Amino acid sequence: MTTTDIHRAIEATWRAESARLIAALARMVRDVGLAEELAQDALVAALERWPEAGMPDNPAAWLMATAKRRAIDRLRRSKLQWRKHAEIARELEAQQAMAPGFEEALDDDIGDDLLRLVFTACHPVLPREGRVAMALRMLCGLSTDEIARAFLVPEPTMAQRIVRAKRTLSEKQVPFEVPRGDDRLERLASVLEVIYLVFNEGYAATAGEDWLRPALCEEALRLGRTLATLMPREPEVHGLLALMELQASRAAARVGKDGEPVLLLDQDRTQWDQALIRQGLASLERAEALGGREGSHALQAAIAACHARAARADDTDWPRIVALYDALVRVLPSPVVALNRAVAVSMAAGAEAGLAAVDAIAGERALRDYHLLPSVRGELLRRLERFDEARAEFERAAGMTRNVRERELLLARARECA
């Protein structure tokens, strides 16, 4: 393998394994910030070592073993000499001396560790922005810049949020756990938000060369199902699960033969996963039966259900979707929800009405750097045969996105307008 190939393999391994690595280390050292540092140290070691020595047979195990050795060294050097650190160091040394198979046994519990990581990151000592940003950094492997763009804030602002969040968790000695009772309920809304953001990053990647990151969607679905088992009477848990299942059912149709994105109205609906659709509809029924019909995730799932029930794009009940968005705007007011509602309005009442709804929110500060705003405007202007304006909007959107596949799609739309 060339050095370039090895670097690509390291990047792929890191994207696939970093969340599990950080979660396992956090359970060992009881400090999320320190766990991330140790995982990063192992990544740097791989970048230094693997190009010369070659790829190990089990890259994930190599990263874990290296990070654990770094943890032991770090704790030994600690000037604080806390009793907790001494105990953890002895525990890690004992684990290192155990018979082969320890890593496999550890992996059996990784799923719980990931859920613990989400709940820890969503501790109420952190502000909402810090919780979500740190979780996306650790669970999705997103850079600070990518998270900043996703939240439509400057990169230095997001970097400060992440640093403050890690420092607060360490200073407050927040336990690495899935809490019980009222503590669990207190964190639930943030946990659901984080899980859905992880799913969304898999469903439409913020950056990179791939439109989808299926492993993240699968991880989010697994976390959602685990949470539904832990909290079976919470309607929004089932609402979120329904939303993810219904959206995941379209995955095979969302990418063309060359990896290009295929938008919803252009998808071959025979490729939609009917088993996942049935699961999603059942989860939505459960959420509504528990009194969660007006929950934000249940409303979004109901919108996805309208698409899932339509055998053809022309069969979609767009007036129903607009009504659901009207309800969603009331419980989850945001410019992004309003933009999605405008798209639904354009399908129910025509492109002119949709464009008027878009222009009514175009001045929102949060949408200033949001590439989907000019993308939606471009599509509506194209439908109105205002091709020069549409081309300019598509080109502006292409310049704002960080995803290679999405940029190619937007530039192709611009060329069609020419």
TrEMBL record:
Residues 119-169 form the RNA polymerase sigma factor 70 region 4 type domain. The lineage of its organism: Bacteria, Pseudomonadati, Pseudomonadota, Gammaproteobacteria, Lysobacterales. It comes from the Bacteria. SUPFAM superfamilies: Sigma2 domain of RNA polymerase sigma factors, Sigma3 and sigma4 domains of RNA polymerase sigma factors. This is RNA polymerase sigma factor. Residues 19-79 form the RNA polymerase sigma-70 region domain. InterPro entries: DUF6596, RNA_pol_sigma-70_dom, RNA_pol_sigma70_r2, RNA_pol_sigma70_r4_t2, RNA_pol_sigma_r2, RNA_pol_sigma_r3/r4-like, WH-like_DNA-bd_sf. Residues 187-287 form the DUF6596 domain.
